[in-house]
Specification:
By secondary structure, the chain is of the alpha/beta class. The chain contains 12 helices and 19 strands. Helix content is 27%, strand content 21%.
């Protein structure tokens, strides 16, 4: 979740390893280096819309006895909203509650949930979530045994109160001390974090709908009380995050060489200035994704935010994804503008809610905005994807090519929300295109013939409310 870091500060390895523990899947998602977009095993572009599912307290997973759970009923509702990915909290404190001891019961529960998502056609992004380092400070993520206080004064110093806005406690000595000792690998702290990720990759390598592993949520730069300059994004990334990410990605790919690694910069690093190479270096660019968040502040305009992230991803030929933004302000123009802007950039996104089940209690207007039509699978390179909520007209244009070995495109449409009186579909060209409605009532399937693929033709699909003058 978002921290107003900028505001707070104003207030005060190489090569790809070929290993024996390879994934058994062949349909994993990867990055196309020439476009930096997600593609599947057929070369088709993939777009993801999703929601975060991070349970920050015991049992550290949205399963019983948690006060909200992800089950079959919930996933069915998620699919009706066009959700095809969950950013699922994989909590370090749950996985290794005691030093060096991997909790197999916790991993079993995570695996059960990942499989349930896969059975429902929903991808999972496993997120090592943290806020404020530890539950001791009202945060989450790292187990208590991994906190080294050193000479830092006890919480909440330099504050006198414990009921302030929680993000302010990032400027306490002990929280900074925890991060500082972790980045310095004091008492082999990074060794245990690497063990946690190695076991995770070993467990989940076999799942085709495992999208990837996010190494750390919203990393803090280090101990700013010991070195105030570590707050500079360039220095923090180069000194602390880059070597950590290289180590973690190497160990992950030993166990699972096929799935993606997601990585974040410091949250106020608007231009990602510290990145000199992607985790695992350029040879692994097609398996790395720059994960970023959008909150106001420290960001102010999503268009500028995406521009800078895309400049970085294109430079390194890696992928990108907007993995957090306010999904609880659905009635505001800002929320609508975020989704529209992401579509204009053909960017995948995952919204943030502390409890994702709150989606279902929102207004019809919110749900209509959240669950707007979009292409989930495209047998070509997307040039236009646009939904106009005023007219309920959806447009998709894509350019075919012979490198893509499947001619099937899949478009999500919630007919009840956007086309209660049915809809019509028009295509250009009109010859060589076959369109059908999927039996689940939420997807349109578009096929183009090989002649269209061989000639690199632009295909345009338009979905509009049905009138007496148009028919499917």
């Amino acid at each position: 979740m978002f921290f107003r870091y900028t505001y707070i500060f104003t207030l005060f390895l190489t090569t790809l390893l070929h290993v024996t523990t390879a994934s058994t899947t062949t349909d994993n998602i990867r990055i196309e280096p020439s476009t930096s977009r997600f593609i599947d095993q057929y070369g088709r572009e993939r777009i993801f819309h999703g929601i975060n599912a991070v349970y920050k307290r015991a049992p550290y997973l949205p399963v019983a006895p948690a006060d909200w759970v992800i089950n079959q009923k919930v996933l069915t509702k998620f699919k009706s909203l066009g959700i095809n990915v969950l950013r699922l909290g994989l909590m370090y404190v749950g996985a290794m509650p005691r030093k060096g001891w991997l909790n197999s019961t916790y991993f079993d529960s995570v695996e059960t949930l990942v499989k349930l998502c896969q059975d429902n056609g929903i991808y999972t992004l496993l997120d090592a979530h943290q806020d404020l380092f530890s539950e001791r400070f009202g945060g989450d993520g790292f187990p208590s045994w991994s906190l080294i206080q050193g000479n830092a004064k006890s919480f909440p110093y330099p504050y006198n109160e414990t009921n302030l806005s929680w993000e302010l406690y990032y400027m306490t000595e002990i929280v900074n001390s925890g991060f500082g000792y972790f980045y310095n690998n004091t008492d082999n702290l990074q060794y245990y974090y690497t063990q946690f990720w190695s076991e995770s990759a070993k467990r989940f390598a076999k799942y085709s709908h495992m999208l990837g592993y996010e190494l750390m949520n919203e990393p803090w730069p280090g101990d700013v009380f010991q070195d105030i300059l570590i707050a500079l994004p360039y220095k923090a990334y180069k000194q602390n995050l880059q070597p950590l990410y290289d180590t973690l990605s190497k160990e992950i790919w030993i166990q699972d060489p096929d799935h993606l690694v997601f990585f974040e910069t410091i949250t106020w690093d608007l231009e990602c200035s510290g990145i000199e190479h992607v985790p695992g270096y350029a040879v692994n660019a097609n398996k790395t994704v720059l994960s970023y968040h959008y909150y106001v502040p420290p960001q102010f305009f999503l268009n500028d935010t995406i521009f800078h992230k895309f400049r970085v991803r294109d430079k390194f030929s890696c992928g990108s994804m907007l993995t957090e933004f306010e999904a609880w302000n659905g009635e505001t123009d800002d929320f609508k503008e975020v989704l529209k802007t992401a579509d204009e950039w053909k960017e995948s996104w995952i919204g943030w809610l502390s409890n994702p089940l709150a989606l279902f209690s929102n207004s019809a207007s919110f749900l209509s905005t959240f669950a707007h039509p979009y292409p989930q699978i495209v047998a070509g390179r997307i040039s236009v994807m646009n939904f106009e909520p005023e007219s309920n007209i959806f447009t998709l244009s894509y350019i075919t090519n012979t490198k893509i070995t499947s001619n099937e495109t899949v478009i999500f449409v919630n007919k009840e929300m956007h086309y209660p009186n049915d809809f019509s579909i028009n295509s250009t060209p009109t010859v060589g295109i076959t369109i059908k409605r999927n039996d689940d009532n939420y997807h349109i399937i578009v096929y183009h013939n090989n002649n269209i693929s061989n000639n690199g033709i632009t295909v345009k699909i338009t979905i509009s409310p049905k009138t007496e003058l148009n028919n499917l």
